[in-house]
Amino acid sequence: MSGKNQTIISEFILLGLPIDPELENLFYALLLAMYLTTVLGNLLIIILIRFDSHLHTPMYLFLSNLSFSGLCFSSVTMPKLLQNMQSQIPSIPYAGCLTQMYFFLFFGGLESFLLVAMAYDRYVAICFPLHYTTIMSSHRCFSLVALSGMLTTFLAMLHTLLMARLYFCADNVIPHFFCDMSALLKLACSDTRVNELLIFITGGLILAIPFLLIIMSYVQIVSSILKVPSVRGIRKAFSTCGSHLSVVSLFYGTVTGLYLCPSTDHSAVKETVMAMMYTMVTPMLNPFIYSLRNRDMKGALGRVFCKRKTLSFL
Ligand SMILES: *[C@@H]1O[C@H](CO)[C@@H](O)[C@H](O)[C@H]1NC(C)=O
C-alpha cells in the first residue's frame, strides 16, 4: 500500500556469492582464472574451426556457434561479478540489470537450441550416413542457426519487456550474483502472475522440448546401432556422441533442477551454487569436452598454428 508513495528505485544491489569475506580474494582469483579459461578455450575453438578447412562440417560449425554463445553467456555475468567483488557497493543500474537479463536469456536460450541442432546433426550422421551431406546442407545448417537465433531473440525480448512493466519500490537487494529473473520477480511490488505463467510456459519451450528432442535423437541413434551391432559402429557413436551427451546433461541437469523444481525448498545459497554451475562451469568445460580425445581438433591445432609459423618464416 505504502509502496506507491515511495520512490521508484533506480539501481539494484547484487549481493554476489555467499562466501566468507576472508575467502573473497581466493574466490576472486579462482573466478578470474575460470573466466579467462572460458574465453581463451572458446576463442581457440572458434579460431581453429574458422581457419581449418577440414573442420568446415556441420558438426564443427555448430560447435563454433556453441563456443561463441558460451563465451558470450559467461561474459554477461562474470565481468560484472568480478567488478562487484572489488567494489564497496556492488550495485547495478536498473537499465543495466534488464540488459543483463536480456542477454543472459538470449545466450542461454541460444545454447539450448544449438545443443538440439547438434543432436539432430549426430542423429542424421549415424542413422542416415549416406544422405548426411544432402540432409545437412550448408543452407539447412544456416537455417537451423538462424531459427535458433530468432526464437531466442523473441523469448528474451518477451521476458525483458514483461519485467520492464513491473515496478520495484521498496527492496532493491538481489541475493544473487547477476540479475536473475526469478530473483527479480521476488522483489517486484506489482503483480507478477503473468510473468510467472509465461516463465512456466516458455521455460517448457526452451528446456523441456529441446531436452525431449535430444533424448529422442539419442534413442534413435542407440536403436540404429543395436540393429547392426559392431564394435566399430559402437565406438564411432560413443566418440562422437559421448562428448555432446555430457555437455547436455551438465547444462540441462542444473538448469532444470533450478527452474522446474519447486523453489520453496531452495535456499538462496543453493540457487546461487547451481546457477554457478551452468553460467560458469558449463561454458568453461565445453571446449575441453569437445577437444580432448578429439583427433580432428588436435590435427587442426597442428595445421593452423604450424602453417602460421611457416608463413611467418617466409
Ligand atoms: C554458425 O553457423 C553458421 C551456419 O552453419 C555458420 O555459417 C557460421 O559461420 C557459424 N558462426 C560461428 C561464429 O561460428
Distance between the termini: 76 Å
- Uncertain regions: pLDDT < 50 for 5+ in a row? 1-5
What proportion of the residues form beta strands (DSSP E)?
A: under 5%
Query: What value does the average pLDDT take?
Result: 83
CATH topology: Rhopdopsin 7-helix transmembrane proteins
How many distinct folded domains? 1
Describe the structure concisely.
This protein is mainly α and 314 residues long. It contains 10 helices and 3 strands, in the order E-H-H-E-H-H-H-E-H-H-H-H-H. The radius of gyration is 22 Å and the shape is globular.
Defining traits:
Rhopdopsin 7-helix transmembrane proteins; three-stranded mixed beta sheet; 10 helices
Note down, in words, how this protein is organized.
This protein is mainly α. It has one domain (7-313): Rhopdopsin 7-helix transmembrane proteins, CATH 1.20.1070. It has helices at 24-51, 58-86, 94-127, 132-135, 138-165, 181-187, 193-227, 231-259, 268-291, 295-313; strands spanning 11-14, 91-93, 173-174. A three-stranded mixed sheet has the order 2-1-3. Residues 1-5 have low confidence and may be disordered. Bound molecules: 2-acetamido-2-deoxy-beta-D-glucopyranose.
